[in-house]
Amino acid sequence: MHGRICVVGLGTMGRPMARRLGSAGCDVAGWDSDAEARKGMALASLEETALEAGTVITMLPDGESVASVVESLLEQRDDRIFLDCSSIDVATTRHLAEMAVAAGCGFVDAPVSGGPEGARDGTLSFMVGGRSDHVARVRPLLDIMGRRIVHFGETGSGQAAKACHNMICGITMLGVCEAFALAESLDLDAGKFLDLCRGAAAQSWILDNRCPVPELAPDVPASHGYAPGFAARLMAKDLALAQQAASTCGQTTPFGAEAARRFARFAASGHGELDISAIYRAIRPDSMAG
What we know:
Blueprint: E1 4-8, H1 14-23, E2 27-31, H2 46-50, E3 53-58, H3 63-73, E4 81-84, H4 90-102, E5 106-109, E6 112-113, H5 115-121, E7 124-129, H6 132-145, E8 146-153, H7 157-185, H8 190-198, H9 205-209, H10 232-249, H11 254-271, H12 280-283
Parallel strand pairs: 1-2, 1-3, 3-4, 4-5, 7-8
Antiparallel strand pairs: 6-7
């Protein structure tokens, strides 16, 4: 149906997405700029790895990286479709889509939510933008990798939805961290407080999957040295994209702006590779060692 699929970007999200496709019987090759990451999945170059691929999936950290891949592969063949699952800006997305269509290719933006757990289990949520015929071509792949696929409309609308979504996540992460810091300062039992919140109105995906206090929950990054998960530098990038989008349409987002400042400062202070829940260290630095 899709022939070979080339997944470009074999990091925290890209590798389990590629494995999910492979386990469903797809012919998958992978490429990453890091030689260790691409070991066993790639040929000598990106161009050689992608040569037979009818679909190229990108899961990369920024728009410049996505543009580099699309531009380098655009002239290889005129029947392929690019499925960008990265979180990048709307303007770059629309520009790349125009280039792809002009070259006889397709382009769909489909940023994701659900973290590496969702990528591993095939339960991601995809926020999709693009022409309906292009979306129809990649829909079977999205169904393998995800549980919820929402087509918002024209190219770039998936990225717009992701910017809004991650603004909620960033604000919520700060709220959870501040609430646990306050609870501990008031000498509340943090475990009991977590149990309360999980069964009350404060429940959220962030609370369940990114509880910031070490050892309260076994399967969250905080209990594993804050290994991501979702790296703080990527949240800082996504919140900046949300602020860029807000500026473009004239919408004021003071909570989003504050979250963007806090995560940018945290990432710049040398903690960018830690999970987003590690920002708890900046909110209650006396609560943990290291």
